[in-house]
């Protein structure tokens, strides 16, 4: 049975898609079977990994019932990917039937046993697409930049996760907060890191020890349709992301021991 992890933050520009792509790739490089799912209508996950997101069936077609999930999976060197594109932007209005919160969970049933990890990228909003990801997930990872406004976005996650746990998915767990674009030499970064620890406690979690430093390669890799782990293996952000992937594995295993029935 797959471990399902969603990357989430309602604030944009926090490195969420880059982190999603890197986690997918990092796990795949360790020989885990990984499926990445793009739930963001911008389609950045598929695009940043070199996929043609316009002339192909996507997760939108699965939700509409016009394609099976097996038919929209694209096999890549980074892992299997289900892309998205702008057609998904109308989800809030188009998918308005009862039980719409379970669209993704229902779609995944036929592939759950085929993967070790399913990694989901979400839009920078707490909408029906994000809720779909939360409903089917075991864990949430919250990337955030060391800025005050980023902290506010994270603090607002608490109410949403509590609602989802109460009504839809009691097993939902916040695996951790991840600091991205981090520069330890600035006072603000260190102050926000301290505040992030406090917010993490409110979410019954902690901040990942790995902190992702800024680097030109982080921005260059998506433009070349690849992951930073392969594009710039010696860069500082790559070393940070490798540590992050290891920490994710450790935390997932610890969570499974603590709650073996999940």
Question: What topology does this entry show?
Answer:
Blueprint: E1 3-7, H1 16-29, E2 34-38, H2 44-48, H3 59-64, H4 69-72, E3 74-76, E4 79-82, H5 91-94, H6 103-108, E5 117-121, H7 128-136, E6 139-144, H8 148-155, H9 157-167, E7 173-179, H10 187-202, H11 216-223, H12 228-231, H13 236-258
Parallel strand pairs: 1-5, 1-6, 2-4, 2-5, 6-7
Antiparallel strand pairs: 3-4
Helix pairs in contact: 1-13, 8-10
Task: Write up this protein.
With 262 residues, the chain is an alpha/beta fold. It contains 13 helices and seven strands. The chain has helices at residues 16-29, 44-48, 59-64, 69-72, 91-94, 103-108, 128-136, 148-155, 157-167, 187-202, 216-223, 228-231, 236-258, and strands at 3-7, 34-38, 74-76, 79-82, 117-121, 139-144, 173-179. A seven-stranded mixed β-sheet has the order 3-4-2-5-1-6-7, with helices on both faces. Helix 1 crosses helix 13 (236-258).
Key structural traits:
262 residues, Rossmann fold, 7 strands
| CATH H level, superfamily name | P-loop containing nucleotide triphosphate hydrolases
Number of helices: 13
**Order of SSEs, N→C?**
EHEHHHEEHHEHEHHEHHHH
Question: What is the number of E strands?
Answer: 7
The class by helix and strand makeup works out as alpha/beta
Oligomer: single chain
C-alpha end-to-end distance: 10 Å
Q: List unreliable stretches of 5+ residues.
A: none
Q: Tell me the helix content.
A: 40-55%
Radius of gyration: 17 Å
Strand content: 5-15%
User: What does the main sheet amount to?
Assistant: 7 strands, mixed
Mean pLDDT level: 92
Could you name the CATH class?
Answer: Alpha Beta
Number of domains: 1
CATH-derived architecture: 3-Layer(aba) Sandwich
Could you name the CATH topology? Answer: Rossmann fold
Strand order of the largest sheet: 3-4-2-5-1-6-7
